[in-house]
User: Fold this.
Amino acid sequence: MGSAAMHGLRKIGERMKATTGLLALYLLLLAALGVAGHHYYSDQQQRAETESRNQLLAIADLKVAQIVEWRKERIADGRVMQANSAMLSAVQQLLDGAPSGGGRAAVVGWLSALKNFYGYANAMLIDSRQTVLLSLVSGARLEASWTAVVREAMRSSQVSLTDLHLESGSGAIYLALIVPVVVSGRSTPIGAFLLWIDPNTFLYPQIQSWPTPSRTGETLLVRREGGQVLYLNELRHRKGTALRFSLPIGPERGRLPSADAVSGRQGTWNGIDYRGIQVLSSARRVPDSPWYLIAKMDAAEIEAPIQQRSELVAIVLLLSVLAAGPAVGLVWYRQRSRLQLVRRESEVARQALVEHFGYLSRYANDVILLEDRSGRIVEANDRAEQSYGYDREELLALNVRDLHEPSSLAGFEARWKAAESPDGIIYETLHRRKDGSTFPVEVSARVIEVEGTGFHQSIIRDITERKRAREEIEKLNRELEQRVQRRTAELEASNKELEAFTYSVSHDLRAPLRAIHGFSRLLEAEHAQQLSLQARHYLDVVRRNALQMGDLIDSLLALSRLGRQTLRTQTVAPAELARQAWEELGGEREGRRVEFVAGDLPSCTADPALLKQVFANLLGNALKYSRGRQTARVEIGCSTIEDASVYWIRDNGAGFDMRYADKLFGVFQRLHSQAEYEGSGVGLAIAQRIVQRHGGRIWAEAKLDEGATFYFTIGDAVWGGEPRQDELTEELRS
Amino acid sequence: MSMPPVEILLVEDNPADEELTIHALRADHLANNIDVVHDGAEALNYIFRTGAFAHRNAGDHPKVILLDFKLPKVDGLEVLRRIREDPGTRSIPVVVLTSSREERDIVESYHLGVNSYLVKPVDFSHFTEVVRQLGLYWLLLNQPPLV
Assistant:
């Protein structure tokens, strides 16, 4: 059947489901790792940036503090010079124009010592008009850019520092410490020393030195120069920049940190430096100067450790992911193994079932069809091909309706619907073979679920034979019934006839006898004188025979009545009935010596009047045939023979030849002559009829001249009734 | 002239039985006022004063009806039923005197209200005795209701 393909589909579906689950688990794991990694990364980045900001700001502050300190030291140096009175007087002499030149020499010597001792690049002395009076480096002039500062210093008598200045000729950079020469008695300084400072000797290295190892860390000093920012020191990443390199202050902030700084921004921020590279920079204004100090570092360097750490984390993550893969895989594998084991077991069971089902279907004596909801046949067993004469392909192209004999399609839809009930439906209908011949079928239809789809399953049995057999049986039954009816009618008719006959006998046969008897009596009584002795004897014979015939008729009627009379059964005590019968036979015993022995008789269910009749007849017989004994002996008792209670009556009389035993119970059958023992020959027949009507049996055993024993059973006779031990011995004298 | 009242109606189709019955009754002079009919239809005519008996005096009922069972035309049971159905004849004593010992007949007769059911013995001496006793009882001993 097509279930194998469906089974395959389901297997794939199951596997997909399991794999999808594991994949989802894996992806979930990845996502978790990703989120954790991202968190870690941004946290580290945040932390690194904060650290770098703090570091940069600290460096900026440190540098500013160093510069401020350096400048203070310089100023202090200048003040020390101002306070050197010897020196002052020498300068005064020189300025006063002492031709001797004694003052000059002293000043030069002192300045030279100062220059060497402090490492100044040059030392000059100018007068109040800013004329250079003396310069240790010959040819040196007062730089134009310094004049304003010098004038101010002269006015205020305060030691000052000039700004950095680029000497246009040599390209050297200097700044100068201006020390106004103030002497007592003069309100304004008489001149000033200008001590040239080469920033390369101390300031620039001081600025450039970076307290921690850094690839890109850089400190710069800048100042504003019109619309430009001027770089005052030598840059780390570009040479020849000091006082030569400037960039425009653009309108947008946040781009060039130095431009922002000279525009008054302080603190730390991200920007793009002169090289156009992302940097983090801190800016501080240097007090008492037009300088701004910027400490900056490439963002790349700040992020480098994070990058490294990130890489490490990424590697760890990757390893985790890689490890998770096998772990998940392992779980998946183990699960699959278990699943496969279970599936293999169920597969084996299923395979067995499928094979078993296949066998059943193939060798089934019934047609098995599977139909879809529309009735189209989707599966059929071998038997279907045999039964309908279509081959498999033809069958699978048919609708189940096509298998019906057209007239049997009425009610099909209702039955189709009924098949969907839980119990299905069983019905008989007429199907048609490919060759057009039809046959009666019994269909057991129900809906079965296969992989979630409902199919109609029809088990179809060819009931041609059964139907024929059933019809045969019905026909036989009908015939039998008719026969029984006919026989019953016949029996009824014959019963009626018999009844009419017995009625007739009873009424019509007795009347003539009565007339014979009566008129012969009247003849004898009223005409005795005319009758001889012989004639009277003849009349006597006529009368006796009339009476005997009357007795015969009565016996015959009694026997006939027995067959029709209904039994009035009850539990009876046979011993009591036997005793009554014995009493009533008193006439028979008159003048005889008779011994009567009555044993135990179990009670039974019987018609008491009829059972008494049996005892009466049998006891009567016993008495009659023992007439010839000097002492007659009649015994009555009961024995158990083959689990049945058997009543018996025994006498010591004439007995009979067992050869004639079969005639014993026949009507009018007699084993003795009327002259020996009178009788109608009906008594035993009556006894047998009564016993038989009670479901019992009667028989006799005897030996000629040695007495006879009559046995009979009465259906259900049981011991335990009222036991009765009667022993009646009657001795009657004649 | 006034007829003496009828004492016995004998319904008997068998002439021998009729003769023997009357013979038995005569012995005790009980057969002086006896009417005999020979079938059921005649019996009904007699009792209900119809047909040949239309002239009979109303209320002139026999003291006892001796009824055979097996009768031509209308059987004894039917005669008995008609007698018992009619209020005017219902109280007439009816004795069935028949040859039939059929239990069915006996039961049916008593059901219909027969006063006695006697089987005719074959033995003439017994028969004579039965009829005698019957006549004595119903004609002399029994006290019928006043009409």
